[in-house]
Amino acid sequence: MLDEFVWGRVSRISPEAPVPVVEVQEESSYPGGAANVARNLRPFCAGVPLCGAVGEDPFADKLRGLLGAEQIGTDALVPFAGSPTIVKTRIIARQQQVVRVDREKNRGPVAEVTARAVELISGRMASVDGVIIEDYGKGFVCQELKDEVCRLARAAGKFLTADPNPGNPLDWGGVDLLKPNRSEAFAMAGRKDPGAAENPMEDVPLLEVGQVLMEKWHLTGLLITLGEHGMILFEKDSEPYHTPTRAREVFDVSGAGDTAIALYTLAVCAGATPREAAEISNHASGVVVAKLGTATLEARELIESFAHDAP
């Protein structure tokens, strides 16, 4: 996806309708969606190959240019003439989002696009340390693609994580770790969320949902992000592990989930234990929510976050 931001100020209400008039002061664009996961990885990695579907339009060209400028591999992007590149335009005034305009057309999975994606991923599997499946429910990630990526990752001995979308009900068996947020976890478990308890370790409905999902897909790991309550990690044959939020201030939570799965996967691939990876992921997420827009972080900021919380 392409994330566009229109920054401005509001000084009056429109005479045409009861809406604010935003006087544009600046415009910026960033790679979004799964591309934002790649952006979060890039400061810590020698290379990040990215696979996804894009349209054959100027927005795709702009997205490739932005990714190339950050040295993220774009040669595995699959052009799909039947669907435009997804663009989300956010209009922001006084550090508040006024409105978001989405341009997209979900046509569902297309056999030739899936086959080409599997071919491109297969050719790059030997050169990577880990694989992240990021599902935004836009039609690209389907059961066949997920199953083929799992098969390739298992055969190559690669660590595989996935960020699911309940609107796209897939069988997530075979991944090493699944990372939904709280609302997604309850939706996938088919349960109503009664609301968060102050202490996640005493939140019985949440703990039950974690066990339901672990058993449903025979997972070895499940990381549920909890917003202001941090994260909770479920592991096979271990007690749940909670890490409280590390955010010191919150300006924009958009993209925090991208940071969470990116840094968790990165940490495990670099040798961290699952609990250490959860702490690293949590600190990283705490850094990016203090920034406006589709944000990433640098190693220096991650180290400073740990230093700030050190006893």
Explain what this protein looks like in three dimensions.
It is a single chain. With 311 residues, the chain is an alpha/beta fold. It has a domain at 1-105: UDP-N-acetylmuramoyl-L-alanine:D-glutamate ligase, CATH 3.40.1190.30. The chain contains nine helices and twelve strands. The strands form four sheets. The protein has a four-stranded mixed beta sheet. Strands 7-8-9 form a three-stranded parallel beta sheet, with helices on both faces. A three-stranded antiparallel beta sheet has the order 10-11-12, with helices on both faces. It is globular, with a radius of gyration of 20 Å.
Features:
311 residues; alpha/beta; UDP-N-acetylmuramoyl-L-alanine:D-glutamate ligase; 4-stranded mixed β-sheet; 3-stranded parallel β-sheet; 12 strands
Quick gist of this model?
This protein is an alpha/beta fold and 311 residues long.
